[in-house]
Specification:
The chain is α+β, with helices and mostly antiparallel strands and 403 residues long. The protein contains 14 helices and 13 strands. A five-stranded mixed β-sheet has the order 5-6-1-7-8. It has a five-stranded antiparallel β-sheet with strand order 11-10-12-9-13, with helices on one face. Strands 3-2-4 form a three-stranded mixed β-sheet. A hairpin with a 2-residue loop joins β5 and β6. The chain is globular, with a radius of gyration of 24 Å.
């Protein structure tokens, strides 16, 4: 029996949430992101803005030049998380086989349900629209690869000045035929460089790849070639995985609105980032063995440096001390900094033992940290702030959990 795999993608998710918060935005060209005069970048944009040539990751300054009447919304990221959780709860209520792959995307395996994939998709789309008031597009196929491609194609075909709300179904046995006319870069695993290499060999569509023997694909792409050939033929046996994978790294970065050469401000930022990384470690019940920093100069030259801790830790002070040492070792006094980041890796579950010479200071600090965390959990992140950085807030932050 063929599987019934659905790929659900919330349409322009951030923008759809912003329209719920401010209905006057509906139908207008607007973008979620930072200010154009502070190196802001487009995080998401409405379909009207897309129609005018704007896209995600575009510098906001360029977006405003393309569309002078563009409305800039700074975003309500906590609200996005709340709305995402509501959608995912609906998915889990439909089937236990849900694999969330981002804040606005998920796979579902609905093979055991009696209805057709198309009927299931229509029902799910209608329920999300009714209960959460968000639009979404869904691809239906016998495997994850084709379902994901189907939702992407559906969004493009119905693309215009409004949310696509597309449902695209690829019947079992028609996977290869569906993929064949699509450009090579539409195939999962083909990036810009691979697409250029394939184009030089005269391969412009997924069907061109599917027609090649494995031997030829190996010549073009190395050992990865046959895998790509299977995908081009619509073959994908991966299950919808419900296993939660712990992050391999946690990091916090800021791109300053203007280059910063003031040591006090840079160390204050480093302190803030270390505190946030430490808190996220404790929330995940993990300890880190390595601390790293990331520095980017005005000419975009970027360096990373790291150091191993004497013992695994999730305490803000230890993370900051290591990050501060790395920073001072690699920063020339008053040299302007464009981007600054702190990260940790080598994450592991709690198994920490106090060192032989620990006289209780570490455990005392840990108890204090737990008390602060409990207050923040109950009353919000701004309940307790370090006096050293009151009133100071970096221009544009990005956090990351590396999988």
């Amino acid at each position: 029996m063929a599987r019934k795999i659905l790929h659900l993608d919330l349409d322009a998710f951030f923008c759809a949430v912003e329209e719920l918060l401010d209905p006057s935005l509906a139908g207008k060209a607007f973008a979620v992101g930072g200010d154009p005069d502070q190196r802001g970048v487009v995080s998401s944009c409405s379909y009207e803005a897309r129609y005018r040539g704007i896209h995600s990751a575009m510098p906001m300054a360029k977006a405003v030049k393309l569309c002078p009447d563009l409305i800039i919304v700074h975003g309500h990221y906590r609200r996005y998380s709340e709305m995402s959780r509501q959608v995912m709860a609906i998915l889990h209520d439909t089937t236990p086989l849900v694999q969330q792959i981002s804040i606005d995307e998920a796979f579902l395996d609905m093979t055991d349900l009696p209805q057709s994939g198309e009927v299931l998709a229509k029902g799910l789309q209608a329920r999300i629209r009714k209960e959460v008031k968000l639009p979404c597009s869904i691809g239906v196929a016998s495997n994850k690869l084709v379902a994901k491609t189907a939702s992407d194609v559906g969004k493009r075909v119905k693309g215009g000045r409004d949310y696509p709300n597309a449902i695209t179904v690829v019947p079992p046995g028609e996977e290869a035929a569906f993929l064949a006319p699509l450009p090579t870069e539409a195939l999962w695993g083909v990036g810009p460089k691979s697409a250029q290499r394939l184009a030089r060999a005269g391969l412009h569509t997924i069907g061109d790849i599917a027609a090649l023997a494995d031997r030829k694909l190996i010549e073009l792409l190395g050992e990865y070639g046959p895998t790509l050939g299977q995908r081009a033929r619509g073959i994908d046996t991966r299950p919808v995985s419900t296993t939660h994978h712990a992050p391999k790294s946690i990091s916090q970065e800021v791109t300053f609105s203007r280059d910063v050469g003031d040591q006090r401000k840079l160390l204050t930022t480093l302190r803030q980032q270390s505190d946030r990384v430490g808190r996220r470690l404790r929330q995940a019940k993990l300890y880190a063995t390595t601390v790293k920093i990331k520095l980017r100069w005005p000419d975009f030259t970027t360096i990373t440096r790291q150091v191993s801790l004497e013992q695994p830790s999730n305490q803000d002070n230890l993370i900051y001390q290591a990050a501060r040492q790395l920073f001072l070792q690699n920063w020339a006094k008053e040299r302007p900094v464009r981007l600054l980041g702190v990260g940790v890796s080598g994450l592991q579950a709690p198994a920490r033992q106090l060192s032989l010479w620990d006289t209780g200071g570490v455990e005392k600090q840990a108890r204090l940290q737990r008390a602060v965390d409990e207050l923040k959990d109950r009353f919000g992140e701004s309940t307790i702030l370090r006096g050293s950085y009151l009133g100071k807030r970096p221009a544009r932050e990005r956090s990351d959990l590396g999988e």
